[in-house]
Amino acid sequence: MAVDAMCSPLGPPACEKDAKALQFIEEMTRNADAVQENVLAEILRRNAETEYLRLYNLGGATDRETFKSRIPMVTYEDLQPIIQRIADGDRSPILSAHPISEFLTSSGTSAGERKLMPTIREELDRRQLLYSLLMPVMNLYMPGLDKGKGLYFLFVKSETKTPGGLLARPVLTSYYKSDHFKTRAFDPYNVYTSPNEAILCPDSFQSMYSQMLCGLYEREQVLRLGAIFASGLLRAIRFLQLNWPELAHDIRTGTLNSKISDSDIRRCMTRVLRSDPDLADFIESECSKHNWERIITRMWPNTKYLEVIVTGAMAQYIPTLDYYSGGLPKVCTMYASSECYFGLNLNPMCKPSEVSYTIMPNMAYFEFLPHDSNSPTDATSDKLVDLVNVEVGKEYELVITTYAGLCRYRVGDILRVTGFHNSAPQFHFVRRNNVLLSIDSDKTDEAELQSAVENASKLLNEFKTSVVEYTSYADTKTIPGHYVIYWELLVKDSANFPKDEVLERCCLAMEESLNSVYRQGRVECNSIGPLEIRVVKNGTFEELMDYAISRGASINQYKVPRCVNFTPIMELLDSRVLSSHFSQSLPHWTPERRR
C-alpha cells in the first residue's frame, strides 16, 4: 500500500482507498501547470460555440495565449444580464454547452439579493471528488476515526425557482439533496450520528433538535464534532443550553417531543429512541450547572477535534470555541464557494492562524490578480498570474474559469501565498474583498452599511436629530452574534430627543436595508441576533481620531473606520455609550420566486 510522497510521520494511509486518493493528490499537484493547461483547453473546447465565447472570436482556439489576449476579466455585475436571461428561461447555450441544471445562490450579494451562480450537473461529481479526498488526509493525522462517529450539525436552507423554472439554492443544500449525499456508500471513516431525514428537514428547529438528540444518544461514540462555520457549532451549543430539559425528557421516556412534527423525522427516530434514565440523569446534571466551560468534552468525552471553518471572519469565534471545548483542535478541511470548489488543507491539525489550502488544479482554471491594499492599482486582465507562478508572501484576488461557463470571473476572495505542495501553491484565506461585517454567511460591505444608516436616520428627521458619525463591529460574544452600530447624534432640540421606541425602529430600519442573506439569517436560520444601536456621547469620534493620531495616524489622511475590532478602540467607544437599543421585530424576508 504505497503512496509516493503524501506520507505523514504518524503512519501510512489507513486503507487502499486512502492510498489511491493520496496518490491522486500527488499526481495533480506535481503536474499542476500541465493539468491547468488541459483544464482550460477542455473548457474552451466544449464551450466554443456558446454565445459568450463567440463574442470574443476565439475561432476554436484553446490555448492560453489566445484566451488571455481576448477574454476579459469580469465581475458578477458584468454577467448579471446574461445570468438573468438563463434564469428567465433561455435554454440556448449562452455560457455553457452543457445545460444549466440549477443556480447556486452565493452568500455574496448584488443589489441586496443573493448572486445566482449557474452550474451544470457534472459539477456535483467534481465536488464529490474533493470531498472524497478529505478523510484520507485526515486519517494520516488522526488514526482510529473508523472506531466512532461524527456529530455534524448540517442543514438545508430554503430554495426557490427562477421564472424559467430552475432551482436556486445554496450549494450545500444542493449537495445534501443530491444522490451523491443521500445514497452515499458506507464509509467506516465517515459515519454521521445524524440521519439524512434530520439533515434534510427544512425546519431549522426540528432539524437541530433531532440531530442533537441523536448526538446525545451516541455521546460515547462521537469522535469529532462539526458544522460548516464556527458560528454554526456555537449555535448548536446555545440550542443545547435552551433545550436540554426537553431533550433529557425524551431520552428518559424514549419518546419524541411533540414539537417535532416532520413525518420523515418521526419515522426515522423510531430507530433511535429508547428509554435511558441514566443518560437523562447525566444530561440534567451537567447542563443544569452554571459553568459550561468544556461542555463539549463533558457531553462528548471522546471528541478528538472540531471540524469547522475558523478562517477569515470566522476567526472571531475561536476564543468561544476554546472555552466550550477546552481547546480541542479546530480543523478546517477544505476551501470552497458557490462558484467552485477550490482545494483542501493538507495539514488539517495545524493552528487556525496557520491554515493553508492547496489548490487542486483539476477543479477549474485558476488565475490570480495581485492585490496590495496599500497601493491599489487598476485591476486589468494583463496583470493576472497563472496558478504555478504566484509568489510566496504576496496577496492575490482569486479569478476562475469554470466548466459551467464562468470566464475569468473575480470571486472576491483575497488570498496570501504561504508555500507550495509540489508545484501547486498553498494559500491562506485573508478575507473577502470589501466585506465590513460578517456574523455567519452574511457579508455586509461599507456601501451597504452606509445606505442602511442613511435610511434609518430618516426616522430622526422629525426630531431635528441626525447621525453625525458612526462605526460598527460584529459582536460574537452573544450567541447568535449580532451587528453593533455606534451612533453619535446631533440633537438640535434637546427637549425633543428621540425616544427609545424611535431608536428601536431605527434598528429595524437598518435591518430592512441590509441584504437578503442577512435577513434570512435573522428570520429563517436564527443565525444572527437583533441589530443593536449604541448611542455615544458627543465628541466620542473626535476622541477616536485623537487616539489614532497618538498612534501615528496622519491628521490629514485620517478617516473614521466604519468597522472596528481593536480592543482599546472598542473599550473607548463602550465607555462613552449613553444608551443601547435593539430591533424588536424581525425584518422582512421570504424565499420569494427569483425575478
UniProtKB/TrEMBL annotation:
One of its GO terms (cellular component) is cytoplasm. The keyword Ligase applies. The keyword Ligase applies. One of its GO terms (molecular function) is acid-amino acid ligase activity. It comes from the Eukaryota. Residues 357-432 form the GH3 middle domain. Residues 448-566 form the GH3 C-terminal domain. Keywords: Ligase. Belongs to the IAA-amido conjugating enzyme family. This is Indole-3-acetic acid-amido synthetase GH3.1.
